[in-house]
Amino acid sequence: MSIVIRDVREHELDSVLALNNNAGLAILPLDAQRLRRFHEQADYFRVAERDGNLAGFLVGFGSDNDHDSSNFAWFRQRYPQFFYIDRIVVASRRRGGGVGRAFYADVQSFAELRYPQLACEVFIDHGADPALLFHGSFGFREVGQHAMEGLGVRASMLMKELCSYPWVRDTYGDALPDLPWTRARRKSVATEQRPTGT
């Protein structure tokens, strides 16, 4: 019954796509091409396994990433440095079982080594109270609202200060110790995709 959070594997992208597109109105749909771009460019792209089955996923981008989301752009216009949670999806049969909390603990551990703030949004036109309560319980606060052009979707823009970041920055600067859990994902993906013999 334990929850395992780990980096997504390329062969799981079809399952991730189905999970995303069955999530309902709280998550924007994806196509295979955009999901592939997430796999190649996201700083954080992890899945949750429960009882050996895919239970959810979370995708995130640092503020220095070339991510094309209008919500990401909204934050970038207002904040110099942050880590942005683009989407989190938990399988409907797994909701309420701690998967979302496990993801947020994991992504915060990743982000607080690199960024002073954690950013995300909640769509507020389709019964958002459970999602807002969930984020509030993690210390997020609303810093504004954003109407997503052409989609007719309004988002509550949420931000959380990461209190460990100043200590990490002052102690290690830009040179984190080389440990498996501190390595940047994009570098790991590039290494995995490099042809043998190079």
Structure characterization notes:
It comes from Pseudoxanthomonas helianthi. Pfam families: Acetyltransf_1. InterPro entries: Acyl_CoA_acyltransferase, GNAT_dom, UCP028520. The chain has about 200 residues and is an alpha+beta fold. The protein is about 35% helix and about 25% strand. It contains seven helices and seven strands. It has helices spanning about 15-20, 30-40, 70-80, 100-110, 130-135, 165-170, 185-195; strands spanning about 5, 45-50, 55-60, 85-90, 115-125, 140-150, 155-160. Strands 1-2-3-4-5-7-6 form a seven-stranded mixed β-sheet, with helices on both faces. The protein is globular and about 45 Å long.
Helix/strand/pairing class, anyone?
alpha+beta
Radius of gyration (CA) equals: 17 Å
Low-confidence stretches: none
Kindly state the number of beta strands.
7
Count the domains: 1
Instruction: Predict the CATH topology.
Output: Aminopeptidase
By CATH reckoning, the class would read Alpha Beta
Largest sheet: 7 strands, mixed
Q: What is the residue-averaged pLDDT? A: 88
In whole angstroms, how far apart are the ends? 41 Å
The H-level CATH homologous superfamily, spelled out, is Gcn5-related N-acetyltransferase (GNAT)
Q: Order of strands across the biggest sheet?
A: 1-2-3-4-5-7-6
Number of helical segments with 4 or more residues? 7
Strand residue percentage: 25-35%
CATH architecture, by name, is 3-Layer(aba) Sandwich
H-E string: EHHEEHEHEHEEHH
- The best one-word shape is globular
